[in-house]
Structures are given as C-alpha cells and as structure tokens.
Amino acid sequence: MKIEEVLIDTYGPLVPLSGLALILDRSPSATRMFLRTNCNLARQLQSVKIKIGRRIYFRVVDIAKILESNVIRDRDVE
Q1: Residues whose CB is less than 8 angstroms from the CB of residue 36 and which lie 6 or more positions away in sequence, other chains included
Q2: In which band, very low, low, confident or very high, does the pLDDT at 70 lie, cut at 50, 70 and 90?
Q3: Per-residue pLDDT band at 73 (split at 50, 70, 90)
C-alpha cells in the first residue's frame, strides 16, 4: 500500500494538524513550532497548508508526495 492510500483510509482527503503531528511523531504544539522553522520540510508543509476558519488542514496527496520525496532523498544520503 502506498503512503497516500494509507493516509486517505485514515484521515480522508484532508489531514488536520493533530493528524500531521501523529504522522511526524510529534505533539501538536511541537508540530506548530516546527512549521514556523526555516527548514526544507517545514517550508514544503507550509506551502500545502489549508486554513478553514481557525483550523489548519493539509491535503493528503501533497503530504504523501512530500513524505515520499523526503524518504527517497534520505535513503540516497546513506
């Protein structure tokens, strides 16, 4: 199963900030702080952020692409 399929089965088309925190294995407050940093992953995640009212969501398709590209890049470094 691809990352995208697993995330869609779990969260649907949009992942809330609390779901992104679970995916990244961080607390929601640590995820909020991380998204304010200037690293490559945080910038990629900020670019796919959707705000609906006061809530923050992320598209599953975009999250899967970001995670897959970072996993492949990390594997190439080793």
Answers
A1: 42
A2: confident
A3: low
Locate 15 and state its tokens.
């992942």
Among the residues of the chain, which ranges form H helices? 3-11, 17-23, 28-35, 40-47, 60-77
Q: What is the pTM of this model?
A: 0.82
Residue whose C-alpha is closest to residue 43's, from 70, 5, 25: 70
Give the chain's end-to-end CA distance (angstroms, integer): 24
Structure tokens at 69: 């590209």
Beta bridge partners of 55: 52
The number of residues in the chain equals 78
Q: State whether residue 41 is helix, strand or coil.
A: helix
The ranges assigned to domains in the chain are 3-77
Nearest to 3, CA basis, from 75, 62, 58: 62
